[in-house]
Amino acid sequence: MIPAQFTYRRVSSVDEALAAVAEHGDDAKLLAGGQSLLPLMKLRFAAPEVVIDIGPLDELRYVRAEGGEIAIGAMSRYHDLHRDPVLAEHAPLLAHVAGEVGDQQVRHRGTIGGSLVHADPAADLPAAVLAVDGVLVARGPDGERRIPAAEFFQGPFETPLAPEELLTEVRIPAQGGAGWGFEKFTRRSIDWAIVGVVVAGSAVSLINMGGTPLRASATEAALADGASAAEAAALAAEGTSPADEAHATAEYRQHLARVLTERALVSAGR
Amino acid sequence: MKVSIEINGTTVSEEVEDRTLLVHFVREQAGLTATNIGCDTTSCGACTVLLDGESVKSCTVLAAQADGHSVTTLEGLHGEDGDLHPVQRAFREEHGLQCGFCTPGMIMASVSLLDHNPKPTRQEVRAGLEGNLCRCTGYHNIVNAVMNASGQEVQR
Ligand SMILES: Cc1cc2nc3c(=O)[nH]c(=O)nc-3n(C[C@H](O)[C@H](O)[C@H](O)COP(=O)(O)OP(=O)(O)OC[C@H]3O[C@@H](n4cnc5c(N)ncnc54)[C@H](O)[C@@H]3O)c2cc1C
Ligand code: FES
Ligand code: FES
């Protein structure tokens, strides 16, 4: 399978990327790791006229501790994050989750920015960034804006980013010694989660339990009231309406959410 | 567009369509056909090559993205004295293949895996090769081959 015809353009700085998206608007797509966009283009689910390759933007490939926060450049690849010493010390949850995405080859290419902007409800990093109350930094023609993760994921594959905007950075609070847990149930190891759960301190978020990553707010409230892991996990599916399809019924997904939440809470030391 | 890629140490420069995939460039422009196309949907790993030393699925990379970079395919592997690469030798010794279709991708993924983790456990080998499918071997001898290549004990 070969994508439909397009014009390839490579940019070498953020400013050049912004100028290119301003010029082409809706007709263009940014290409980061290409691990979602290229499969979509090969299947002709996406057929942009212009592909703007931001792969060379090493200026967006970094992890830095800044005060109590960790700044992660949007072009950081999963493999970079998985072995990053700053993340290992201050946000081991993110380093771990990055190592669980897809397979080795996908992790060598895929980027945190691409994963967040793609906003697949079955993806891992969006739920992790939501659990740690991350903030997404975008740059566009009017300068920079910061969008909390809770406002960023608006629906399946839907975010508030305009075609003229570039996601440049993700900022997360340093996690200190907070316990964390990650559970992901898949049919085959490289698959996306049928259901997944991220626990970060007292926050719990769910993968693939709706159109966006979700916070399990009933579970979080119960934990705040001193409930045990088992009691709190029993509430994990409350208020969710997950997809009901061939791989898993909605009921099965809700069952998984409860089971996996308990496991994740236990591994987080709750 | 004109794409120039250093493949196994030799620069290949060709005029190709912007939408050309790396795997097609390797097979058709460079004429190196060890790299197979299996699923063509990023699922099977048969098309795995090293891009700047790291394993990638070349059916899911544009040739244009590799322009100015270096690629290693199975044909580019060799041992110290021009003999087989240790991973190739181990796949042969351990009979880590049957039909051989998955083998070029398996070997390239294994080289990358051992580069990051020179002494993996059997479980780490299985997890590290999760992106590569084999329909023949049941994986047991593939895991043995990677253990052998890393100088570790194999399981009979
Ligand atoms: C076999 C396989 C298994 C996978 N398994 C998983 C899994 O288990 N869990 C999981 O979470 N994901 C999985 N993925 C998806 C993978 O994580 C992708 O890497 C990710 O969804 C997209 O990141 P990318 O860098 O490859 O982005 P691309 O594919 O290049 O881009 C994705 C989208 O984001 C836009 N974009 C990218 N970067 C920016 C930016 N900086 N600013 C604005 N827009 C941008 C692009 O225009 C495009 O619309 C899998 C993929 C494959 C092929
Ligand atoms: S042919 Fe590329 S992953 Fe199967
Ligand atoms: S040896 Fe036949 S597919 Fe692996």
Automatic annotation (TrEMBL), chain A:
One of its GO terms (molecular function) is oxidoreductase activity. Keywords: FAD, Flavoprotein, Oxidoreductase. The keyword Protein transport does not apply. The keyword Flavoprotein applies. Coiled coil: none annotated. It comes from the Bacteria. Gene3D superfamilies: 3.30.465.10, CO dehydrogenase flavoprotein, C-terminal domain, Uridine Diphospho-n-acetylenolpyruvylglucosamine Reductase, domain 2. InterPro entries: CO_DH_flav_C, CO_DH_flav_C_dom_sf, Diverse_Substr_Oxidored, FAD-bd_PCMH, FAD-bd_PCMH-like_sf, FAD-bd_PCMH_sub1, FAD-bd_PCMH_sub2, Mopterin_DH_FAD-bd. Residues 1-177 form the FAD-binding PCMH-type domain. This is Carbon-monoxide dehydrogenase medium subunit. It comes from Amycolatopsis thermoflava.
TrEMBL record, chain B:
Residues 1-77 form the 2Fe-2S ferredoxin-type domain. Pfam families: Fer2, Fer2_2. Pathway: Alkaloid degradation; nicotine degradation. GO terms for molecular function: 2 iron, 2 sulfur cluster binding; metal ion binding; oxidoreductase activity. Keywords: 2Fe-2S, Iron, Iron-sulfur, Metal-binding, Oxidoreductase. Coiled coil: none annotated. This is Carbon-monoxide dehydrogenase small subunit. It comes from Amycolatopsis thermoflava.
